[in-house]
Amino acid sequence: MAIKILLLMILCHILDDFVLQPICLSNLKQKSWWEKNDPDKMYKNDYLVALGIHALSWSIMIHLPILFLLAYNPIALAISVFVNFYFHFVVDDLKANRHEFNLAQDQFFHFIQIIVTFLYFI
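Now predict its structure.
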């Protein structure tokens, strides 16, 4: 059962990070897209909203196997969703805006998040 949960978490990661994330959201997470396409200073931080939407979606998605297949503590689940949201947000910002990570490093850190989350609940 544990391996099934881990594999489902990885599948949920792949679905949310690649399949369900449209190109427009991927672009909207980039500060440079806003600077080029809508330079009005009113929108200068809107990339943070796009980053947040994706990070929250991803964090909820990787927790679905835990939610449906394990007995869990709702407070622990909420804390884990928040912690994963925060780290996914930071990692994606480091890749999309600060250009400190490439795609391989971005994915490595997301897999570490999944493994740590899995170990926390198992």
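The first helix runs from residue 2 to 19.
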